[in-house]
Amino acid sequence: MATTSSPQTIAVIGAGFSGTLVAAHLLTQAKAPLTVHLIEREHSRFARGVAYSTIEDCHLLNVPAGNMSAFPDDREHFLRWAQARKDELLDCPCVGEVSAAAYLPRRAYGDYLAAVLDEAERGAAPRVRLQRWIGEAAALKIDSGAIDLRLASGERLQADRAVLALGNFRPGDPSGADAAFYGSARYHGDPWAPEVLERLLSTESCLLVGSGLTMVDWAITLRQAGYRGSIHVVSRRGLWPQRHQPGVPVELGIEPSGSKGAVRKGLRRIRAFVRDSGGDWRPAIDALRPVTQTLWKSLGLSEQRKFLRHLRTFWDCHRHRLAPGIAARLDAMLESGQLVRHVGRIRSFADRGDHVEVLIRRRGSDQSYAFNVDAVVNCSGSESDYRKLDSALVKDLLGQRLIQPDPLALGLDVADNGALIGAEGRASEVLFTLGPPQKGRLWETTAVPEIRGQAARLAVELLGN
Ligand SMILES: Cc1cc2nc3c(=O)[nH]c(=O)nc-3n(C[C@H](O)[C@H](O)[C@H](O)COP(=O)(O)OP(=O)(O)OC[C@H]3O[C@@H](n4cnc5c(N)ncnc54)[C@H](O)[C@@H]3O)c2cc1C
Fold first, then answer.
1. Which helix H or strand E contains 249, and what residues bound it?
2. Measured in angstroms, how far is the CA atom of residue 168 from the centroid of ligand 1?
3. Which of 287, 345, 349, 444 could disulfide-pair with 252, CB 3.0 to 4.6 Å?
Protein backbone atom coordinates (compact mmCIF):
# COMPACT_ATOMS: atom_id res chain seq x y z
CA MET A 1 0.00 0.00 0.00
CA ALA A 2 1.42 3.41 -0.95
CA THR A 3 2.28 5.85 1.83
CA THR A 4 -0.46 8.50 1.92
CA SER A 5 0.63 12.05 2.83
CA SER A 6 2.76 13.82 0.25
CA PRO A 7 6.33 14.50 1.48
CA GLN A 8 8.10 17.83 0.97
CA THR A 9 11.60 16.61 1.69
CA ILE A 10 13.19 13.23 1.05
CA ALA A 11 16.75 12.34 2.08
CA VAL A 12 18.54 9.66 0.06
CA ILE A 13 21.65 8.41 1.83
CA GLY A 14 24.24 6.94 -0.53
CA ALA A 15 24.66 8.03 -4.16
CA GLY A 16 25.59 4.76 -5.82
CA PHE A 17 23.36 3.24 -8.49
CA SER A 18 20.50 2.68 -6.01
CA GLY A 19 20.44 6.15 -4.42
CA THR A 20 21.08 7.98 -7.68
CA LEU A 21 18.26 6.18 -9.45
CA VAL A 22 15.74 6.76 -6.65
CA ALA A 23 16.67 10.45 -6.64
CA ALA A 24 16.31 10.65 -10.44
CA HIS A 25 12.87 9.00 -10.34
CA LEU A 26 11.74 11.30 -7.51
CA LEU A 27 12.80 14.36 -9.51
CA THR A 28 11.05 13.12 -12.62
CA GLN A 29 7.84 11.94 -10.98
CA ALA A 30 7.20 14.66 -8.35
CA LYS A 31 4.56 17.19 -9.37
CA ALA A 32 4.16 18.96 -5.98
CA PRO A 33 7.05 20.95 -4.44
CA LEU A 34 9.79 18.60 -3.22
CA THR A 35 13.43 18.79 -2.12
CA VAL A 36 15.52 15.66 -2.63
CA HIS A 37 18.70 15.62 -0.53
CA LEU A 38 21.20 13.18 -2.08
CA ILE A 39 24.01 12.47 0.35
CA GLU A 40 27.27 10.69 -0.52
CA ARG A 41 30.24 10.40 1.82
CA GLU A 42 32.91 10.14 -0.92
CA HIS A 43 33.14 12.81 -3.56
CA SER A 44 34.46 10.43 -6.23
CA ARG A 45 31.50 8.12 -5.71
CA PHE A 46 28.74 10.70 -6.21
CA ALA A 47 26.28 9.28 -8.79
CA ARG A 48 28.65 6.32 -9.23
CA GLY A 49 28.95 4.31 -6.03
CA VAL A 50 31.54 1.61 -5.45
CA ALA A 51 31.11 -0.22 -8.74
CA TYR A 52 31.12 2.69 -11.20
CA SER A 53 33.62 5.11 -9.61
CA THR A 54 36.58 3.11 -10.90
CA ILE A 55 38.87 5.04 -13.22
CA GLU A 56 40.23 1.91 -14.90
CA ASP A 57 39.23 1.48 -18.54
CA CYS A 58 39.54 -2.30 -18.27
CA HIS A 59 37.16 -2.68 -15.34
CA LEU A 60 34.31 -3.84 -17.51
CA LEU A 61 30.61 -4.28 -16.75
CA ASN A 62 29.79 -7.94 -16.25
CA VAL A 63 26.36 -7.48 -17.85
CA PRO A 64 26.06 -6.74 -21.60
CA ALA A 65 25.24 -3.13 -22.53
CA GLY A 66 21.82 -4.17 -23.85
CA ASN A 67 20.75 -5.11 -20.32
CA MET A 68 22.27 -2.18 -18.40
CA SER A 69 19.62 0.50 -18.97
CA ALA A 70 18.79 2.43 -15.82
CA PHE A 71 15.12 2.26 -16.77
CA PRO A 72 13.11 -0.97 -16.81
CA ASP A 73 10.65 0.42 -19.39
CA ASP A 74 13.32 1.72 -21.80
CA ARG A 75 15.71 -1.20 -22.22
CA GLU A 76 17.96 0.49 -24.78
CA HIS A 77 18.53 3.72 -22.88
CA PHE A 78 22.13 2.92 -21.91
CA LEU A 79 22.91 1.43 -25.30
CA ARG A 80 21.75 4.61 -27.08
CA TRP A 81 23.83 6.72 -24.67
CA ALA A 82 26.88 4.54 -25.34
CA GLN A 83 26.40 4.51 -29.11
CA ALA A 84 26.31 8.31 -29.10
CA ARG A 85 29.85 8.11 -27.60
CA LYS A 86 31.07 5.24 -29.72
CA ASP A 87 34.37 6.75 -30.84
CA GLU A 88 35.39 7.67 -27.31
CA LEU A 89 34.50 4.18 -26.02
CA LEU A 90 36.33 2.44 -28.84
CA ASP A 91 39.48 4.26 -27.73
CA CYS A 92 39.48 2.15 -24.53
CA PRO A 93 41.94 -0.76 -24.85
CA CYS A 94 39.38 -3.34 -23.62
CA VAL A 95 36.46 -2.33 -25.84
CA GLY A 96 36.11 -4.00 -29.24
CA GLU A 97 32.57 -2.95 -30.16
CA VAL A 98 29.68 -0.86 -28.85
CA SER A 99 26.66 -3.10 -29.29
CA ALA A 100 23.94 -4.66 -27.13
CA ALA A 101 26.22 -7.65 -26.55
CA ALA A 102 29.30 -5.59 -25.64
CA TYR A 103 30.81 -5.36 -22.14
CA LEU A 104 31.62 -1.70 -21.68
CA PRO A 105 33.81 0.05 -19.06
CA ARG A 106 32.23 0.57 -15.64
CA ARG A 107 33.83 4.04 -15.67
CA ALA A 108 31.64 4.95 -18.66
CA TYR A 109 28.61 3.59 -16.83
CA GLY A 110 29.40 6.02 -13.99
CA ASP A 111 29.33 8.87 -16.54
CA TYR A 112 25.97 7.56 -17.74
CA LEU A 113 24.51 7.57 -14.21
CA ALA A 114 25.74 11.10 -13.59
CA ALA A 115 24.08 12.13 -16.88
CA VAL A 116 20.81 10.42 -15.90
CA LEU A 117 20.77 12.41 -12.65
CA ASP A 118 21.63 15.70 -14.37
CA GLU A 119 18.88 15.19 -16.91
CA ALA A 120 16.30 14.37 -14.21
CA GLU A 121 17.33 17.51 -12.34
CA ARG A 122 17.00 19.67 -15.46
CA GLY A 123 13.61 18.22 -16.35
CA ALA A 124 12.08 18.46 -12.84
CA ALA A 125 8.83 20.37 -12.31
CA PRO A 126 9.06 23.89 -10.85
CA ARG A 127 9.92 23.83 -7.13
CA VAL A 128 11.12 20.21 -7.37
CA ARG A 129 14.82 20.40 -6.68
CA LEU A 130 17.90 18.35 -5.92
CA GLN A 131 20.38 19.22 -3.21
CA ARG A 132 23.71 17.39 -3.42
CA TRP A 133 25.69 16.73 -0.24
CA ILE A 134 29.19 15.35 0.16
CA GLY A 135 29.43 14.01 3.68
CA GLU A 136 28.77 10.96 5.78
CA ALA A 137 25.31 10.58 7.31
CA ALA A 138 26.21 9.64 10.87
CA ALA A 139 23.00 9.62 12.92
CA LEU A 140 19.28 10.01 12.55
CA LYS A 141 16.42 10.77 14.95
CA ILE A 142 12.73 10.36 14.26
CA ASP A 143 10.39 12.60 16.20
CA SER A 144 6.64 12.47 15.47
CA GLY A 145 7.44 11.10 12.02
CA ALA A 146 9.91 13.89 11.17
CA ILE A 147 13.50 12.87 10.46
CA ASP A 148 16.45 14.85 11.80
CA LEU A 149 19.61 13.70 10.04
CA ARG A 150 23.11 14.55 11.25
CA LEU A 151 26.18 14.40 9.06
CA ALA A 152 29.62 13.56 10.47
CA SER A 153 30.59 17.20 9.74
CA GLY A 154 27.95 18.34 12.25
CA GLU A 155 25.60 19.67 9.55
CA ARG A 156 21.96 18.73 9.99
CA LEU A 157 19.02 18.39 7.71
CA GLN A 158 15.36 17.58 8.11
CA ALA A 159 13.31 15.21 5.97
CA ASP A 160 9.88 13.63 5.86
CA ARG A 161 11.27 10.35 4.53
CA ALA A 162 14.71 8.80 4.17
CA VAL A 163 16.10 6.08 1.93
CA LEU A 164 19.09 4.07 3.08
CA ALA A 165 20.92 3.28 -0.16
CA LEU A 166 24.12 2.25 1.61
CA GLY A 167 25.02 -0.50 -0.85
CA ASN A 168 28.23 -2.49 -0.62
CA PHE A 169 30.40 -2.34 2.49
CA ARG A 170 34.07 -3.28 2.64
CA PRO A 171 34.68 -6.99 3.25
CA GLY A 172 35.09 -8.40 6.73
CA ASP A 173 38.66 -9.36 7.60
CA PRO A 174 39.49 -12.96 6.63
CA SER A 175 40.05 -15.48 9.41
CA GLY A 176 43.56 -16.76 10.05
CA ALA A 177 45.38 -13.76 11.49
CA ASP A 178 45.68 -12.29 14.91
CA ALA A 179 44.12 -8.83 15.21
CA ALA A 180 47.55 -7.12 15.07
CA PHE A 181 48.01 -8.19 11.46
CA TYR A 182 44.94 -6.21 10.38
CA GLY A 183 46.74 -3.05 11.52
CA SER A 184 49.83 -3.89 9.42
CA ALA A 185 50.76 -1.53 6.57
CA ARG A 186 51.15 -4.65 4.42
CA TYR A 187 47.46 -5.52 4.83
CA HIS A 188 44.78 -3.75 2.78
CA GLY A 189 41.42 -4.51 4.38
CA ASP A 190 39.41 -2.26 2.06
CA PRO A 191 40.08 -3.35 -1.53
CA TRP A 192 38.38 -0.20 -2.86
CA ALA A 193 40.50 2.29 -0.87
CA PRO A 194 42.16 4.76 -3.28
CA GLU A 195 45.74 4.30 -2.00
CA VAL A 196 45.94 0.51 -2.54
CA LEU A 197 47.10 0.58 -6.18
CA GLU A 198 50.10 2.81 -5.53
CA ARG A 199 51.15 0.68 -2.56
CA LEU A 200 50.86 -2.56 -4.55
CA LEU A 201 52.84 -1.20 -7.48
CA SER A 202 55.89 -0.82 -5.25
CA THR A 203 55.78 -4.53 -4.30
CA GLU A 204 57.15 -7.65 -5.99
CA SER A 205 54.38 -9.99 -4.91
CA CYS A 206 50.94 -9.81 -3.39
CA LEU A 207 48.17 -12.09 -2.18
CA LEU A 208 44.52 -11.50 -3.10
CA VAL A 209 42.28 -13.21 -0.55
CA GLY A 210 39.11 -14.42 -2.28
CA SER A 211 38.51 -15.35 -5.92
CA GLY A 212 35.40 -13.39 -6.86
CA LEU A 213 34.90 -10.29 -8.98
CA THR A 214 36.98 -8.02 -6.70
CA MET A 215 39.96 -10.34 -7.17
CA VAL A 216 39.38 -10.15 -10.92
CA ASP A 217 39.35 -6.34 -10.75
CA TRP A 218 42.69 -6.35 -8.96
CA ALA A 219 44.37 -8.85 -11.24
CA ILE A 220 43.27 -6.83 -14.29
CA THR A 221 44.21 -3.48 -12.73
CA LEU A 222 47.70 -4.68 -11.86
CA ARG A 223 48.22 -6.13 -15.32
CA GLN A 224 47.11 -2.89 -16.99
CA ALA A 225 49.41 -0.89 -14.72
CA GLY A 226 52.39 -2.98 -15.87
CA TYR A 227 52.89 -4.87 -12.59
CA ARG A 228 55.60 -7.51 -13.02
CA GLY A 229 55.31 -9.24 -9.63
CA SER A 230 53.55 -12.48 -8.69
CA ILE A 231 49.88 -12.26 -7.86
CA HIS A 232 48.76 -15.07 -5.56
CA VAL A 233 45.06 -15.81 -5.16
CA VAL A 234 43.64 -17.98 -2.41
CA SER A 235 40.11 -19.27 -1.93
CA ARG A 236 38.71 -22.22 -0.04
CA ARG A 237 37.19 -24.07 -2.97
CA GLY A 238 39.25 -22.60 -5.78
CA LEU A 239 36.14 -21.54 -7.71
CA TRP A 240 36.53 -18.50 -9.96
CA PRO A 241 33.85 -16.55 -11.83
CA GLN A 242 33.00 -18.31 -15.09
CA ARG A 243 33.02 -16.61 -18.46
CA HIS A 244 30.01 -15.33 -20.40
CA GLN A 245 29.16 -17.06 -23.65
CA PRO A 246 26.26 -16.30 -25.97
CA GLY A 247 23.41 -18.79 -25.53
CA VAL A 248 19.75 -19.37 -26.25
CA PRO A 249 17.30 -18.88 -23.34
CA VAL A 250 15.52 -22.05 -22.18
CA GLU A 251 12.50 -23.04 -20.10
CA LEU A 252 13.62 -24.95 -17.02
CA GLY A 253 10.25 -25.53 -15.42
CA ILE A 254 11.37 -25.13 -11.79
CA GLU A 255 8.28 -24.12 -9.82
CA PRO A 256 8.33 -22.09 -6.57
CA SER A 257 8.10 -24.57 -3.71
CA GLY A 258 8.39 -24.27 0.03
CA SER A 259 8.65 -28.03 0.51
CA LYS A 260 11.55 -29.76 2.20
CA GLY A 261 14.14 -30.79 -0.36
CA ALA A 262 13.21 -28.00 -2.81
CA VAL A 263 16.85 -26.93 -3.17
CA ARG A 264 18.01 -30.48 -3.86
CA LYS A 265 15.19 -30.98 -6.41
CA GLY A 266 16.03 -27.72 -8.18
CA LEU A 267 19.69 -28.70 -8.39
CA ARG A 268 18.76 -32.12 -9.81
CA ARG A 269 16.61 -30.42 -12.46
CA ILE A 270 19.49 -28.16 -13.52
CA ARG A 271 21.93 -31.06 -13.64
CA ALA A 272 19.50 -33.11 -15.71
CA PHE A 273 19.02 -30.22 -18.12
CA VAL A 274 22.76 -29.78 -18.59
CA ARG A 275 23.25 -33.54 -19.06
CA ASP A 276 20.34 -33.95 -21.51
CA SER A 277 21.15 -30.88 -23.55
CA GLY A 278 24.71 -32.17 -23.71
CA GLY A 279 25.92 -28.63 -23.70
CA ASP A 280 26.26 -25.44 -21.82
CA TRP A 281 25.02 -24.82 -18.26
CA ARG A 282 24.66 -21.06 -18.88
CA PRO A 283 21.14 -21.11 -20.41
CA ALA A 284 19.95 -23.03 -17.31
CA ILE A 285 21.33 -20.44 -14.90
CA ASP A 286 20.04 -17.60 -17.10
CA ALA A 287 16.59 -19.19 -17.18
CA LEU A 288 16.47 -18.87 -13.39
CA ARG A 289 17.30 -15.17 -13.39
CA PRO A 290 13.80 -13.73 -13.96
CA VAL A 291 12.31 -16.08 -11.33
CA THR A 292 15.15 -16.19 -8.79
CA GLN A 293 13.46 -13.81 -6.34
CA THR A 294 10.15 -15.75 -6.49
CA LEU A 295 11.94 -19.06 -6.02
CA TRP A 296 14.02 -17.67 -3.15
CA LYS A 297 11.00 -16.29 -1.30
CA SER A 298 9.13 -19.57 -1.69
CA LEU A 299 11.95 -21.62 -0.14
CA GLY A 300 11.54 -20.67 3.52
CA LEU A 301 14.37 -20.20 5.99
CA SER A 302 15.49 -23.78 6.38
CA GLU A 303 15.89 -24.40 2.62
CA GLN A 304 17.46 -20.96 2.18
CA ARG A 305 20.05 -21.88 4.81
CA LYS A 306 20.71 -25.16 3.02
CA PHE A 307 21.26 -23.26 -0.25
CA LEU A 308 23.69 -20.86 1.42
CA ARG A 309 25.61 -23.68 3.11
CA HIS A 310 26.02 -25.94 0.08
CA LEU A 311 25.47 -23.92 -3.08
CA ARG A 312 26.26 -20.27 -2.47
CA THR A 313 29.80 -20.30 -3.85
CA PHE A 314 28.72 -22.34 -6.86
CA TRP A 315 25.82 -19.98 -7.53
CA ASP A 316 28.04 -16.91 -7.26
CA CYS A 317 30.66 -18.09 -9.71
CA HIS A 318 28.14 -19.34 -12.29
CA ARG A 319 25.72 -16.45 -11.96
CA HIS A 320 28.20 -13.49 -11.74
CA ARG A 321 30.22 -14.10 -14.86
CA LEU A 322 33.12 -12.43 -16.63
CA ALA A 323 33.18 -10.55 -19.90
CA PRO A 324 34.96 -12.91 -22.35
CA GLY A 325 37.83 -10.46 -22.92
CA ILE A 326 38.51 -10.27 -19.18
CA ALA A 327 38.38 -14.06 -18.82
CA ALA A 328 40.94 -14.36 -21.66
CA ARG A 329 43.27 -11.90 -19.90
CA LEU A 330 43.06 -13.90 -16.67
CA ASP A 331 43.78 -17.14 -18.52
CA ALA A 332 46.87 -15.54 -20.06
CA MET A 333 48.05 -14.43 -16.62
CA LEU A 334 47.57 -17.95 -15.23
CA GLU A 335 49.39 -19.47 -18.16
CA SER A 336 52.33 -17.09 -17.84
CA GLY A 337 52.61 -17.97 -14.14
CA GLN A 338 52.07 -14.40 -12.98
CA LEU A 339 48.76 -15.37 -11.41
CA VAL A 340 49.18 -18.23 -8.92
CA ARG A 341 46.13 -20.09 -7.70
CA HIS A 342 45.94 -21.55 -4.16
CA VAL A 343 43.04 -23.72 -3.02
CA GLY A 344 42.67 -24.05 0.72
CA ARG A 345 42.15 -22.26 3.98
CA ILE A 346 44.43 -19.57 5.38
CA ARG A 347 45.87 -20.79 8.65
CA SER A 348 47.91 -17.72 9.50
CA PHE A 349 49.44 -14.46 8.33
CA ALA A 350 52.58 -13.16 9.99
CA ASP A 351 54.10 -9.76 9.26
CA ARG A 352 57.88 -10.45 9.35
CA GLY A 353 58.87 -6.84 8.83
CA ASP A 354 60.01 -7.01 5.21
CA HIS A 355 57.38 -9.53 4.06
CA VAL A 356 54.24 -11.37 5.11
CA GLU A 357 54.45 -15.12 5.67
CA VAL A 358 51.24 -16.87 4.67
CA LEU A 359 50.42 -20.39 5.81
CA ILE A 360 47.74 -22.26 3.85
CA ARG A 361 46.12 -25.60 4.53
CA ARG A 362 45.50 -27.36 1.24
CA ARG A 363 41.86 -28.20 0.54
CA GLY A 364 40.98 -31.78 1.43
CA SER A 365 44.26 -32.41 3.22
CA ASP A 366 45.96 -31.89 6.57
CA GLN A 367 49.05 -30.54 4.88
CA SER A 368 49.95 -26.89 5.09
CA TYR A 369 52.54 -24.91 3.19
CA ALA A 370 53.98 -21.43 3.53
CA PHE A 371 54.98 -18.72 1.08
CA ASN A 372 55.95 -15.07 1.33
CA VAL A 373 54.34 -12.00 -0.22
CA ASP A 374 54.90 -8.28 0.16
CA ALA A 375 51.25 -7.34 0.61
CA VAL A 376 47.81 -8.83 1.22
CA VAL A 377 44.55 -7.45 -0.24
CA ASN A 378 41.22 -8.50 1.20
CA CYS A 379 38.97 -9.39 -1.75
CA SER A 380 36.67 -11.64 0.23
CA GLY A 381 33.36 -9.98 -0.73
CA SER A 382 31.22 -7.25 0.73
CA GLU A 383 30.31 -7.72 4.42
CA SER A 384 26.57 -8.17 4.71
CA ASP A 385 26.11 -8.74 8.44
CA TYR A 386 25.02 -5.30 9.63
CA ARG A 387 26.05 -6.08 13.23
CA LYS A 388 29.67 -6.22 12.08
CA LEU A 389 29.74 -3.03 10.00
CA ASP A 390 31.96 -0.12 10.85
CA SER A 391 29.35 2.53 10.00
CA ALA A 392 28.29 5.18 12.51
CA LEU A 393 24.83 5.44 10.93
CA VAL A 394 24.21 1.70 10.95
CA LYS A 395 25.35 1.45 14.59
CA ASP A 396 23.07 4.36 15.51
CA LEU A 397 20.04 2.83 13.78
CA LEU A 398 20.66 -0.63 15.24
CA GLY A 399 21.10 0.94 18.70
CA GLN A 400 17.74 2.70 18.37
CA ARG A 401 16.17 -0.55 17.13
CA LEU A 402 14.99 1.25 13.99
CA ILE A 403 16.54 -1.45 11.79
CA GLN A 404 17.45 -5.09 12.29
CA PRO A 405 19.36 -7.68 10.27
CA ASP A 406 17.27 -10.18 8.32
CA PRO A 407 17.26 -13.72 9.78
CA LEU A 408 20.08 -14.85 7.45
CA ALA A 409 22.23 -11.75 8.16
CA LEU A 410 22.51 -11.11 4.43
CA GLY A 411 21.15 -7.59 4.80
CA LEU A 412 18.28 -5.86 6.59
CA ASP A 413 14.75 -6.84 7.45
CA VAL A 414 12.62 -5.14 4.78
CA ALA A 415 8.90 -5.13 3.97
CA ASP A 416 7.55 -5.71 0.44
CA ASN A 417 7.21 -1.96 -0.17
CA GLY A 418 10.87 -1.33 0.73
CA ALA A 419 10.09 -0.06 4.27
CA LEU A 420 12.68 -0.99 6.88
CA ILE A 421 11.44 -3.20 9.69
CA GLY A 422 12.58 -2.29 13.19
CA ALA A 423 13.46 -4.61 16.06
CA GLU A 424 9.84 -4.51 17.26
CA GLY A 425 8.80 -6.08 13.95
CA ARG A 426 6.95 -3.01 12.61
CA ALA A 427 7.52 -1.59 9.12
CA SER A 428 8.62 2.03 9.27
CA GLU A 429 6.49 4.72 7.63
CA VAL A 430 9.49 6.94 6.98
CA LEU A 431 12.61 4.77 6.50
CA PHE A 432 13.09 2.78 3.30
CA THR A 433 15.80 0.92 1.44
CA LEU A 434 16.60 -0.85 -1.85
CA GLY A 435 19.37 -2.84 -3.49
CA PRO A 436 21.94 -4.94 -1.58
CA PRO A 437 20.30 -4.56 1.90
CA GLN A 438 17.33 -6.56 0.52
CA LYS A 439 19.46 -9.63 -0.13
CA GLY A 440 17.90 -11.70 2.67
CA ARG A 441 14.41 -11.11 1.28
CA LEU A 442 15.16 -11.35 -2.43
CA TRP A 443 18.61 -13.00 -2.77
CA GLU A 444 19.28 -11.50 -6.23
CA THR A 445 19.14 -7.73 -5.61
CA THR A 446 22.63 -6.45 -6.18
CA ALA A 447 22.83 -5.92 -9.94
CA VAL A 448 21.40 -3.21 -12.18
CA PRO A 449 18.70 -5.39 -13.82
CA GLU A 450 17.17 -6.02 -10.38
CA ILE A 451 17.73 -2.63 -8.73
CA ARG A 452 16.38 -0.44 -11.56
CA GLY A 453 12.83 -1.77 -11.06
CA GLN A 454 13.08 -1.36 -7.30
CA ALA A 455 14.17 2.28 -7.69
CA ALA A 456 11.21 3.13 -9.95
CA ARG A 457 8.72 1.45 -7.58
CA LEU A 458 10.22 2.96 -4.45
CA ALA A 459 9.91 6.49 -5.87
CA VAL A 460 6.17 5.90 -6.39
CA GLU A 461 5.90 4.60 -2.83
CA LEU A 462 7.80 7.55 -1.35
CA LEU A 463 5.75 10.14 -3.19
CA GLY A 464 2.52 8.44 -2.19
CA ASN A 465 1.36 8.61 -5.82
C1 LIG B 1 33.20 -3.89 -8.05
C2 LIG B 1 31.76 -4.11 -8.44
C3 LIG B 1 31.41 -4.30 -9.79
C4 LIG B 1 30.09 -4.47 -10.15
N5 LIG B 1 29.77 -4.63 -11.47
C6 LIG B 1 28.48 -4.73 -11.84
C7 LIG B 1 28.10 -4.82 -13.22
O8 LIG B 1 28.95 -4.81 -14.10
N9 LIG B 1 26.78 -4.90 -13.54
C10 LIG B 1 25.82 -4.94 -12.58
O11 LIG B 1 24.63 -5.02 -12.91
N12 LIG B 1 26.15 -4.88 -11.26
C13 LIG B 1 27.44 -4.77 -10.88
N14 LIG B 1 27.77 -4.68 -9.56
C15 LIG B 1 26.70 -4.76 -8.59
C16 LIG B 1 26.46 -3.39 -7.92
O17 LIG B 1 26.39 -3.70 -6.55
C18 LIG B 1 25.18 -2.72 -8.33
O19 LIG B 1 25.14 -2.60 -9.70
C20 LIG B 1 25.00 -1.32 -7.75
O21 LIG B 1 26.10 -0.54 -8.14
C22 LIG B 1 24.78 -1.24 -6.27
O23 LIG B 1 24.54 0.13 -6.03
P24 LIG B 1 24.27 0.70 -4.59
O25 LIG B 1 24.00 2.14 -4.80
O26 LIG B 1 23.22 -0.08 -3.90
O27 LIG B 1 25.60 0.44 -3.79
P28 LIG B 1 27.01 1.20 -3.80
O29 LIG B 1 27.53 1.30 -5.16
O30 LIG B 1 27.84 0.49 -2.79
O31 LIG B 1 26.68 2.67 -3.29
C32 LIG B 1 26.39 2.98 -1.96
C33 LIG B 1 26.98 4.34 -1.66
O34 LIG B 1 26.57 4.75 -0.36
C35 LIG B 1 27.62 5.50 0.21
N36 LIG B 1 27.41 5.50 1.67
C37 LIG B 1 27.41 4.44 2.49
N38 LIG B 1 27.15 4.83 3.75
C39 LIG B 1 26.98 6.17 3.72
C40 LIG B 1 26.70 7.16 4.71
N41 LIG B 1 26.54 6.82 5.99
N42 LIG B 1 26.60 8.45 4.34
C43 LIG B 1 26.76 8.80 3.03
N44 LIG B 1 27.05 7.91 2.05
C45 LIG B 1 27.15 6.61 2.39
C46 LIG B 1 28.88 4.75 -0.23
O47 LIG B 1 30.02 5.60 -0.20
C48 LIG B 1 28.49 4.34 -1.66
O49 LIG B 1 28.97 5.25 -2.62
C50 LIG B 1 29.09 -4.51 -9.17
C51 LIG B 1 29.45 -4.36 -7.82
C52 LIG B 1 30.75 -4.15 -7.46
C53 LIG B 1 31.09 -3.97 -6.01
1. none
2. 5
3. 287
